[in-house]
Amino acid sequence: MHASLPPPCVCVSCVFALGQRPRLSTLLAPIVLLTGHSAEVTAARFNPAGTILASASLDKSVLLWDTASCKNFANFSGNHTAGILDLQWTSNGERIVTASIDKSVGIWDAANGDRIRRYKAHQGIVNACATALNNQNAIVSGSDDRTTRVWDPRVRAEVHSLACSYPVTSVAVSHGGDTVYAGGLDNVVKVFDLRKPSEPALVLEGHADTITSLSLSPNGNFVLTNAMDNTVRIWDVRPYCPNDRCSTILTGAQHSFEKTLLRANWSPDGNFVAAGSADRFVYVWNANTRALLYRLPGHSGSVNDVTFHPKEPIIASGASDKKIYLGELDLS
Protein backbone atom coordinates (compact mmCIF):
# COMPACT_ATOMS: atom_id res chain seq x y z
CA MET A 1 0.00 0.00 0.00
CA HIS A 2 1.70 3.14 -1.14
CA ALA A 3 1.45 6.58 -2.65
CA SER A 4 3.21 7.53 -5.85
CA LEU A 5 3.21 10.06 -8.64
CA PRO A 6 1.41 8.97 -11.79
CA PRO A 7 3.29 8.55 -15.08
CA PRO A 8 4.25 11.80 -16.85
CA CYS A 9 1.30 13.46 -18.55
CA VAL A 10 1.20 16.50 -20.82
CA CYS A 11 -2.56 17.06 -20.88
CA VAL A 12 -3.86 20.44 -19.78
CA SER A 13 -5.30 19.15 -16.53
CA CYS A 14 -1.93 17.69 -15.51
CA VAL A 15 0.31 20.71 -16.13
CA PHE A 16 0.77 20.98 -12.38
CA ALA A 17 3.06 17.96 -12.62
CA LEU A 18 5.33 19.85 -15.02
CA GLY A 19 5.81 22.68 -12.56
CA GLN A 20 4.11 25.27 -14.76
CA ARG A 21 1.80 26.50 -12.01
CA PRO A 22 2.37 27.39 -8.37
CA ARG A 23 1.34 24.93 -5.71
CA LEU A 24 -2.18 25.37 -4.36
CA SER A 25 -2.22 23.09 -1.32
CA THR A 26 -0.18 21.19 1.25
CA LEU A 27 -0.60 17.94 -0.68
CA LEU A 28 2.61 15.90 -1.09
CA ALA A 29 2.61 16.62 -4.82
CA PRO A 30 0.19 18.31 -7.24
CA ILE A 31 -1.15 14.89 -8.26
CA VAL A 32 -0.79 11.74 -6.15
CA LEU A 33 -1.79 8.16 -6.88
CA LEU A 34 -2.81 5.93 -3.96
CA THR A 35 -2.76 2.16 -4.39
CA GLY A 36 -3.54 -0.57 -1.90
CA HIS A 37 -7.01 -1.91 -2.59
CA SER A 38 -7.23 -5.29 -4.33
CA ALA A 39 -10.62 -4.61 -5.93
CA GLU A 40 -12.48 -1.60 -7.26
CA VAL A 41 -12.75 1.45 -5.04
CA THR A 42 -16.40 2.31 -4.44
CA ALA A 43 -16.15 5.31 -2.10
CA ALA A 44 -13.63 7.86 -0.84
CA ARG A 45 -14.26 10.50 1.82
CA PHE A 46 -12.17 13.03 3.76
CA ASN A 47 -12.79 13.33 7.48
CA PRO A 48 -14.22 16.70 8.60
CA ALA A 49 -10.74 18.03 9.47
CA GLY A 50 -9.35 16.98 6.10
CA THR A 51 -6.43 15.14 7.68
CA ILE A 52 -7.55 11.63 6.70
CA LEU A 53 -9.01 10.11 3.56
CA ALA A 54 -11.03 6.93 4.04
CA SER A 55 -11.62 4.63 1.08
CA ALA A 56 -13.93 1.64 0.69
CA SER A 57 -13.70 -1.22 -1.77
CA LEU A 58 -15.24 -4.41 -3.05
CA ASP A 59 -12.26 -6.10 -1.35
CA LYS A 60 -14.30 -5.74 1.90
CA SER A 61 -11.88 -3.27 3.48
CA VAL A 62 -11.68 0.36 4.54
CA LEU A 63 -8.25 1.96 4.18
CA LEU A 64 -7.23 5.17 5.94
CA TRP A 65 -4.71 7.51 4.33
CA ASP A 66 -2.85 10.42 5.90
CA THR A 67 -3.63 13.40 3.68
CA ALA A 68 -0.32 15.16 4.31
CA SER A 69 1.99 12.22 3.58
CA CYS A 70 -0.46 10.28 1.38
CA LYS A 71 0.51 7.11 3.23
CA ASN A 72 -1.87 4.33 4.22
CA PHE A 73 -1.78 3.89 7.99
CA ALA A 74 -4.78 1.68 8.78
CA ASN A 75 -6.74 -1.19 7.26
CA PHE A 76 -10.17 -1.98 8.68
CA SER A 77 -11.24 -5.40 7.44
CA GLY A 78 -12.75 -8.66 8.62
CA ASN A 79 -16.12 -7.31 9.70
CA HIS A 80 -17.93 -7.31 6.36
CA THR A 81 -18.33 -10.62 4.51
CA ALA A 82 -18.83 -8.97 1.12
CA GLY A 83 -17.79 -5.81 -0.67
CA ILE A 84 -18.40 -2.32 0.73
CA LEU A 85 -20.44 -0.02 -1.52
CA ASP A 86 -20.46 3.24 0.42
CA LEU A 87 -18.71 5.03 3.28
CA GLN A 88 -19.32 8.17 5.32
CA TRP A 89 -17.76 9.91 8.34
CA THR A 90 -19.87 11.05 11.26
CA SER A 91 -19.88 14.79 11.82
CA ASN A 92 -17.39 14.67 14.71
CA GLY A 93 -14.90 12.61 12.70
CA GLU A 94 -14.79 9.87 15.31
CA ARG A 95 -16.67 7.15 13.42
CA ILE A 96 -16.98 5.71 9.93
CA VAL A 97 -20.21 4.26 8.56
CA THR A 98 -20.19 1.60 5.84
CA ALA A 99 -22.84 0.04 3.59
CA SER A 100 -22.20 -3.46 2.29
CA ILE A 101 -23.29 -6.12 -0.16
CA ASP A 102 -23.57 -8.43 2.88
CA LYS A 103 -26.84 -6.59 3.74
CA SER A 104 -25.36 -4.85 6.78
CA VAL A 105 -24.50 -1.35 7.94
CA GLY A 106 -21.27 -1.05 9.93
CA ILE A 107 -20.16 1.66 12.34
CA TRP A 108 -16.44 1.75 13.07
CA ASP A 109 -14.27 3.59 15.58
CA ALA A 110 -12.02 5.65 13.30
CA ALA A 111 -9.22 5.71 15.88
CA ASN A 112 -8.68 1.97 16.24
CA GLY A 113 -10.91 0.19 13.71
CA ASP A 114 -13.12 -1.46 16.32
CA ARG A 115 -16.62 -2.21 15.13
CA ILE A 116 -19.12 -0.30 17.27
CA ARG A 117 -22.27 -1.56 15.58
CA ARG A 118 -23.29 -3.92 12.83
CA TYR A 119 -26.91 -3.47 11.83
CA LYS A 120 -28.39 -6.44 9.97
CA ALA A 121 -32.05 -5.48 9.62
CA HIS A 122 -31.89 -4.98 5.86
CA GLN A 123 -33.01 -7.94 3.77
CA GLY A 124 -31.05 -6.96 0.68
CA ILE A 125 -27.80 -5.36 -0.44
CA VAL A 126 -27.17 -2.01 1.27
CA ASN A 127 -26.27 0.37 -1.53
CA ALA A 128 -25.75 3.65 0.27
CA CYS A 129 -25.37 5.37 3.62
CA ALA A 130 -25.45 8.97 4.80
CA THR A 131 -24.68 10.95 7.95
CA ALA A 132 -25.96 14.32 9.16
CA LEU A 133 -23.64 17.32 9.20
CA ASN A 134 -24.85 18.62 12.56
CA ASN A 135 -26.05 15.43 14.22
CA GLN A 136 -23.52 12.67 14.82
CA ASN A 137 -26.28 10.25 15.84
CA ALA A 138 -28.30 10.45 12.60
CA ILE A 139 -27.35 7.70 10.15
CA VAL A 140 -29.35 6.61 7.10
CA SER A 141 -29.05 3.61 4.77
CA GLY A 142 -30.76 2.53 1.55
CA SER A 143 -31.15 -1.03 0.32
CA ASP A 144 -32.35 -3.33 -2.43
CA ASP A 145 -35.01 -4.45 0.06
CA ARG A 146 -36.97 -1.29 -0.84
CA THR A 147 -36.45 0.40 2.49
CA THR A 148 -34.55 3.39 3.77
CA ARG A 149 -33.63 2.96 7.42
CA VAL A 150 -32.62 5.49 10.05
CA TRP A 151 -30.19 4.48 12.79
CA ASP A 152 -28.89 5.95 16.03
CA PRO A 153 -25.59 4.35 17.12
CA ARG A 154 -26.65 4.69 20.75
CA VAL A 155 -29.33 2.03 20.23
CA ARG A 156 -29.26 -1.45 18.74
CA ALA A 157 -32.32 -1.26 16.51
CA GLU A 158 -33.44 1.03 13.72
CA VAL A 159 -35.19 4.27 14.63
CA HIS A 160 -37.28 4.41 11.45
CA SER A 161 -37.93 2.13 8.47
CA LEU A 162 -39.19 4.11 5.49
CA ALA A 163 -40.99 2.06 2.85
CA CYS A 164 -40.18 2.66 -0.81
CA SER A 165 -41.71 1.02 -3.88
CA TYR A 166 -38.41 0.13 -5.54
CA PRO A 167 -34.84 -0.70 -4.47
CA VAL A 168 -33.09 2.31 -2.92
CA THR A 169 -29.73 3.14 -4.49
CA SER A 170 -28.91 6.50 -2.89
CA VAL A 171 -29.68 8.37 0.32
CA ALA A 172 -29.02 11.70 2.02
CA VAL A 173 -30.08 13.28 5.30
CA SER A 174 -30.64 16.89 6.32
CA HIS A 175 -27.98 18.54 8.45
CA GLY A 176 -30.12 18.27 11.57
CA GLY A 177 -31.12 14.69 10.84
CA ASP A 178 -34.87 15.30 10.62
CA THR A 179 -35.37 14.91 6.85
CA VAL A 180 -34.34 11.92 4.74
CA TYR A 181 -33.87 11.77 0.96
CA ALA A 182 -34.08 8.46 -0.93
CA GLY A 183 -33.47 7.80 -4.62
CA GLY A 184 -33.78 4.54 -6.48
CA LEU A 185 -34.88 2.51 -9.46
CA ASP A 186 -38.12 4.48 -9.81
CA ASN A 187 -36.14 7.53 -11.01
CA VAL A 188 -37.47 9.86 -8.30
CA VAL A 189 -36.24 11.27 -5.00
CA LYS A 190 -38.57 10.75 -2.08
CA VAL A 191 -38.28 13.27 0.75
CA PHE A 192 -39.39 12.04 4.18
CA ASP A 193 -40.11 14.27 7.17
CA LEU A 194 -39.27 12.04 10.13
CA ARG A 195 -41.96 13.71 12.20
CA LYS A 196 -44.49 12.13 9.79
CA PRO A 197 -42.55 9.28 8.18
CA SER A 198 -45.41 7.15 6.85
CA GLU A 199 -45.50 8.90 3.46
CA PRO A 200 -43.06 11.10 1.53
CA ALA A 201 -43.59 14.79 2.17
CA LEU A 202 -42.25 15.59 -1.29
CA VAL A 203 -41.31 13.70 -4.46
CA LEU A 204 -38.73 15.13 -6.88
CA GLU A 205 -39.48 14.00 -10.43
CA GLY A 206 -37.42 14.62 -13.56
CA HIS A 207 -34.76 11.94 -13.97
CA ALA A 208 -35.40 9.31 -16.64
CA ASP A 209 -33.37 6.50 -15.09
CA THR A 210 -32.04 5.14 -11.79
CA ILE A 211 -30.66 7.70 -9.36
CA THR A 212 -27.17 6.68 -8.27
CA SER A 213 -26.19 9.49 -5.91
CA LEU A 214 -27.67 12.05 -3.52
CA SER A 215 -25.74 14.83 -1.81
CA LEU A 216 -27.07 17.73 0.27
CA SER A 217 -25.53 21.16 -0.31
CA PRO A 218 -23.46 22.76 2.47
CA ASN A 219 -26.25 25.25 3.23
CA GLY A 220 -28.88 22.50 3.20
CA ASN A 221 -31.06 24.19 0.58
CA PHE A 222 -30.26 22.02 -2.43
CA VAL A 223 -29.86 18.35 -3.27
CA LEU A 224 -27.43 17.13 -5.93
CA THR A 225 -28.39 13.99 -7.85
CA ASN A 226 -26.57 11.80 -10.35
CA ALA A 227 -28.53 9.35 -12.47
CA MET A 228 -28.21 6.74 -15.19
CA ASP A 229 -29.93 9.12 -17.63
CA ASN A 230 -26.52 10.81 -17.89
CA THR A 231 -27.59 13.98 -16.10
CA VAL A 232 -26.49 15.55 -12.84
CA ARG A 233 -29.21 17.74 -11.35
CA ILE A 234 -29.56 20.31 -8.59
CA TRP A 235 -32.89 20.51 -6.77
CA ASP A 236 -34.22 23.27 -4.54
CA VAL A 237 -35.54 21.58 -1.40
CA ARG A 238 -36.40 24.67 0.62
CA PRO A 239 -39.91 24.42 2.13
CA TYR A 240 -41.33 27.19 -0.03
CA CYS A 241 -39.58 26.90 -3.36
CA PRO A 242 -40.89 29.67 -5.65
CA ASN A 243 -40.03 27.95 -8.94
CA ASP A 244 -39.39 24.54 -10.46
CA ARG A 245 -37.66 22.32 -7.91
CA CYS A 246 -35.10 21.22 -10.51
CA SER A 247 -32.99 24.35 -10.83
CA THR A 248 -30.01 23.02 -12.78
CA ILE A 249 -29.24 20.19 -15.22
CA LEU A 250 -25.58 19.36 -15.90
CA THR A 251 -24.43 17.06 -18.69
CA GLY A 252 -21.19 15.38 -19.68
CA ALA A 253 -20.68 12.63 -17.12
CA GLN A 254 -21.61 9.23 -18.51
CA HIS A 255 -23.07 5.99 -17.21
CA SER A 256 -22.58 2.71 -19.05
CA PHE A 257 -23.93 -0.80 -19.41
CA GLU A 258 -22.15 -1.66 -16.13
CA LYS A 259 -24.93 0.21 -14.27
CA THR A 260 -22.70 1.04 -11.31
CA LEU A 261 -23.56 3.62 -8.65
CA LEU A 262 -21.56 6.64 -9.77
CA ARG A 263 -21.59 9.48 -7.26
CA ALA A 264 -21.49 13.27 -7.26
CA ASN A 265 -20.59 15.74 -4.52
CA TRP A 266 -20.47 19.42 -3.60
CA SER A 267 -17.45 21.58 -2.90
CA PRO A 268 -17.32 22.90 0.70
CA ASP A 269 -18.52 26.36 -0.35
CA GLY A 270 -21.37 25.00 -2.47
CA ASN A 271 -20.18 26.77 -5.63
CA PHE A 272 -18.90 23.69 -7.46
CA VAL A 273 -19.97 20.10 -8.00
CA ALA A 274 -18.09 17.07 -9.25
CA ALA A 275 -19.19 13.67 -10.54
CA GLY A 276 -17.61 10.38 -11.42
CA SER A 277 -18.16 8.97 -14.88
CA ALA A 278 -18.03 5.67 -16.76
CA ASP A 279 -15.78 7.24 -19.41
CA ARG A 280 -12.94 7.27 -16.83
CA PHE A 281 -13.00 11.04 -16.27
CA VAL A 282 -13.90 13.26 -13.32
CA TYR A 283 -16.24 16.11 -14.25
CA VAL A 284 -16.27 19.41 -12.35
CA TRP A 285 -18.87 22.15 -12.94
CA ASN A 286 -19.57 25.60 -11.61
CA ALA A 287 -22.90 25.05 -9.84
CA ASN A 288 -23.99 28.65 -10.41
CA THR A 289 -23.11 29.15 -14.09
CA ARG A 290 -23.45 25.47 -15.11
CA ALA A 291 -20.11 25.73 -16.92
CA LEU A 292 -18.03 22.56 -17.21
CA LEU A 293 -14.66 23.54 -15.73
CA TYR A 294 -12.68 20.32 -15.76
CA ARG A 295 -12.71 16.90 -17.36
CA LEU A 296 -9.94 15.24 -15.40
CA PRO A 297 -8.18 12.13 -16.75
CA GLY A 298 -6.03 9.53 -15.02
CA HIS A 299 -8.22 6.55 -14.20
CA SER A 300 -8.42 3.48 -16.44
CA GLY A 301 -11.90 2.45 -15.29
CA SER A 302 -15.24 3.92 -14.28
CA VAL A 303 -14.88 6.63 -11.64
CA ASN A 304 -17.22 5.58 -8.85
CA ASP A 305 -16.76 8.43 -6.41
CA VAL A 306 -15.33 11.91 -6.22
CA THR A 307 -15.02 14.16 -3.19
CA PHE A 308 -13.66 17.60 -2.31
CA HIS A 309 -11.27 18.30 0.55
CA PRO A 310 -13.12 20.28 3.26
CA LYS A 311 -10.46 22.99 3.60
CA GLU A 312 -8.03 22.92 0.68
CA PRO A 313 -8.39 22.93 -3.14
CA ILE A 314 -7.94 19.16 -3.40
CA ILE A 315 -10.17 16.62 -5.10
CA ALA A 316 -10.07 12.85 -4.60
CA SER A 317 -11.49 10.14 -6.83
CA GLY A 318 -11.85 6.37 -6.55
CA ALA A 319 -12.48 4.03 -9.46
CA SER A 320 -12.98 0.50 -10.70
CA ASP A 321 -9.26 0.40 -11.60
CA LYS A 322 -8.58 -0.04 -7.83
CA LYS A 323 -6.87 3.35 -7.69
CA ILE A 324 -7.39 6.63 -5.86
CA TYR A 325 -6.15 9.94 -7.21
CA LEU A 326 -5.65 13.10 -5.19
CA GLY A 327 -5.02 16.32 -7.05
CA GLU A 328 -4.91 20.05 -6.63
CA LEU A 329 -7.76 21.88 -8.33
CA ASP A 330 -7.74 25.57 -9.19
CA LEU A 331 -11.25 26.83 -8.47
CA SER A 332 -10.33 30.50 -8.11
TrEMBL record:
One GO location term (cellular component): catalytic step 2 spliceosome
Chain segments annotated as transmembrane: none
Source taxon at top rank: Eukaryota
Keywords: Ligase, mRNA processing, mRNA splicing, Repeat, WD repeat
A GO BP entry: RNA splicing
InterPro entries from the UniProt entry: U5_snRNP_Component (IPR052234), WD40/YVTN_repeat-like_dom_sf (IPR015943), WD40_PAC1 (IPR020472), WD40_repeat_CS (IPR019775), WD40_repeat_dom_sf (IPR036322), WD40_rpt (IPR001680)
Ranges occupied by WD repeats: 34-75, 77-118, 119-161, 204-238, 266-295, 296-332
Molecular function per GO: ligase activity; RNA binding
PANTHER family (alphabetical): U5 SMALL NUCLEAR RIBONUCLEOPROTEIN 40 KDA PROTEIN
The protein, known as: Biotin/lipoate A/B protein ligase, variant
Species annotation: Capsaspora owczarzaki (strain ATCC 30864)
